[in-house]
Amino acid sequence: QPEVELHEQLRYASQEFENLKCHRYFENTAFVSFGSIMEASFFGSKINYLPGQAPWFDEKESLFKDKTALLKVKPFDFYKSGLCEKVHYLYETMKHLTEGYDIKVMFPITLRSPFSIAIMLRGFEDLLIDMYEAPEFFNDLLGTITSYLKDYAKARAEFLREPLPKLMLFNDEISTPTL
Asked: Which one of 70, 102, 145, 165 counts the least CB within 10 Å of its CB?
């Protein structure tokens, strides 16, 4: 619910300021965020919403356990792919709720690299095996994911009438000894 999301962000910022004398978290910006699952949702991953936890993709129902799933990937749609409809609903509602206040609502940016999303779609072990046994599939998978991320960034910039942002990679596994 947008009201709950906005309330909790403001409550957290207020407590952080009162208890830590810190305003780092809240600089007049409210966030629409699904954490790190938004990108996996673009490819049809089922999302679980568990009480008291951040949403997470269903690892048992990966659509990419079968390599032929890559052939069935639909073109990216900024308004319909994965969680995009919910993202737009939250964004528009939170913007409406903050009208008249000095609060900017931030439309989500992508948080994961192509490699990280590939791990979500294939699983870590299967992806490492793909790198060795099916390098063409691995490259096609990363290329498809990269195209989706680029399409999202372009559509987001157009929607917000902002310049294309710099790419940010917020995940950890890209720097592990795995690579």
From this structure: 102
